[in-house]
Design goal:
By secondary structure, the chain is an alpha+beta fold. It has two domains: about 110 residues, 2-Layer Sandwich (D-amino Acid Aminotransferase, Chain A, domain 1), CATH 3.30.470; about 160 residues, Alpha-Beta Barrel (D-amino Acid Aminotransferase, Chain A, domain 2), CATH 3.20.10. About 30% of the residues lie in helices and about 25% in strands. It has eight helices and 15 strands. Strands 7, 8, 9, 10, 11, 12, 13, 14 and 15 form a nine-stranded mixed beta sheet that branches. A six-stranded antiparallel beta sheet has the order 2-1-6-5-3-4. The model has no long low-confidence stretch (mean pLDDT about 95). Bound molecules: 3-[O-phosphonopyridoxyl]--amino-benzoic acid. 3-[O-phosphonopyridoxyl]--amino-benzoic acid binds next to helix 6 and strand 13.
């Protein structure tokens, strides 16, 4: 059976799952989304993802046309109908069909889409050996223009950074903020270990407050590693003992090279490996 996609309460074959070309989600990137994982049939941190989705929607003045309970059921039904227990869930809410003008008041019917699919993970080798990343010239959106806390359909900022990273031969790219501080990667948050402490940019640096980021900070505290949310520079990364990224898709992935500087001794460090292992245990338990 073809993959079943949920749109506004109905299921469609993947090939027939379509929305209007007049949808402002397409015309203007006007909408919000979430990327969620399920492990062993259980949706990981669902409440947190729904909170963030509703907060993103509120920030763009978009009313999600169903309740959280209905959204939860839509997600569970989409997993069930596709027989997916370990997978990736994409929830999208668009502004809906409007006219060829920006005015969201002329849009009716926000579209609620739920896709559940198998995940395309980074190759296993990267988890063993670590990732190589570069800092790119594309600056993270200024929070006063478009807050990085909003997970909107307007991902061009990140896509432009991704292109620059890919052209440099890297599958993830590091973005700085307007002050030149470290913000985050295109779809992942960044962490450093220095002298036994875990460091990561604060929300004020202009980042998406990742749900995996929160989980990993809790895991670090559990093993007695101090966690500091502090402004970081490229220099802090270059002299770090360890570095890793977090995201729903990537989970916890070690970084061993940044801008051609070897981090630590060039292999995933002990605290990174411990956090990877605890994250794995938490999600696969
Ligand atoms: N920063 C940004 C900019 C993100 O888009 C994260 C951090 C990590 O957040 P979570 O809550 O997942 O820990 C994200 C989310 C993908 C994909 O398919 C990943 C994201 C967004 C869109 C697509 O890899 N990451």
């Amino acid at each position: 059976m073809a993959l079943q996609i949920y749109i506004n309460g109905e299921f469609y074959d993947k090939a027939d799952a379509k929305i209007s070309v007049y949808d402002h989600g397409l015309l203007y990137g006007d909408g919000v989304f979430e990327g969620i994982r399920s492990y062993g049939g259980k949706v990981f941190r669902l409440a947190e993802h729904l909170n963030r989705l509703w907060e993103s929607a509120k920030a763009i003045w978009l009313e999600i046309p169903i309740s959280r309970e209905e959204m939860t059921k839509a997600i569970q039904d989409t997993l069930a109908v596709n027989n997916i227990t370990d997978g990736y869930i994409r929830v999208v809410v668009t502004r809906g069909v409007g006219s060829l003008g920006l005015d969201p008041n002329r849009c009716s019917d926000p579209q609620v889409i739920v896709i559940a699919d198998r995940i395309s993970l980074y190759p296993e080798e990267l988890y063993q050996k670590g990732l190589k990343i570069v800092t790119v010239s594309v600056m993270r959106n200024h929070a006063a223009a478009l807050s990085p806390r909003i997970k909107s359909l307007n991902y061009l900022n990140n896509i432009l950074a991704k292109i620059e990273g890919l052209q440099a031969g890297c599958i993830e790219a590091l973005m700085l903020n307007h002050k030149g501080e470290v913000a985050e990667c295109t779809g992942d948050n960044i962490f450093l270990i220095r002298k036994g402490r875990l460091l990561t940019p604060p929300q004020e640096a202009g980042i998406l407050e990742g749900i995996t980021r929160d989980v990993v900070m809790d895991l670090a505290r559990e093993i007695g590693v101090a966690v500091l949310e502090v402004p970081l520079t490229k220099h802090d990364i270059y002299i770090a003992d360890e570095c890793f990224l977090t995201g729903s898709a990537a989970e916890v992935v070690p970084v061993v090279t940044v801008d051609c500087r070897t981090i630590g001794d060039g292999a995933p460090g002990p605290i990174t490996r411990e956090l990877m292992s605890r994250f794995h245990a938490l999600t696969r338990s």
